[in-house]
Design goal:
Number of strands: 9
Number of helices: 1
CATH superfamily: Jelly Rolls
Number of domains: 1
Shape: globular
Structural class: mainly beta
CATH topology: Jelly Rolls
CATH class: Mainly Beta
Strand content: over 45%
């Protein structure tokens, strides 16, 4: 495994392709467009749903269409992010998201989480 952190765009990606979001969690990540430089995904998580363990190999620009109460956990089940502990972002405003190592996401709220991710492949 690489000694560089997963969010370092110049580090080797240590996780298998089988954990890629589109492969490991296809019910939640729908490819809209892909070429050698970018991949565009539409991600939707309904209330009460839990997305299986997956990764996001590339950093992305995300456009949040609807926000929800989400808990992200690492591969060991440790909470790494809880949206209830942060200020909700402005909808329809681009935000940067670093690449993500193996994680699950659970929608613990009562509204759907709906986002477009433009993954930037050129950074790796």
């Amino acid at each position: 495994m690489s000694s560089k952190p997963a969010d370092d765009p110049n580090s080797a990606w240590p996780w298998p392709d089988s954990l890629d979001a589109v492969v490991a969690a296809p019910d939640f990540h729908k490819p809209l467009f892909e070429n050698p430089r970018v991949r565009v995904l539409h991600t939707r998580i309904a209330p009460g749903q839990r997305v299986p363990l997956h990764t996001h190999r590339w950093p992305s620009v995300q456009l949040i269409l609807s926000w929800g109460s989400l808990i992200r956990r690492d591969q060991l089940g440790n909470v790494t992010y809880d949206t209830r502990q942060t200020e909700a972002p402005q909808l329809n405003r681009p935000l940067w998201l670093e690449r993500l190592p193996p994680h699950t996401v659970e929608n613990v709220g009562d509204t759907e989480f709906n986002v477009i991710l433009v993954e930037i492949k050129d950074t790796c």
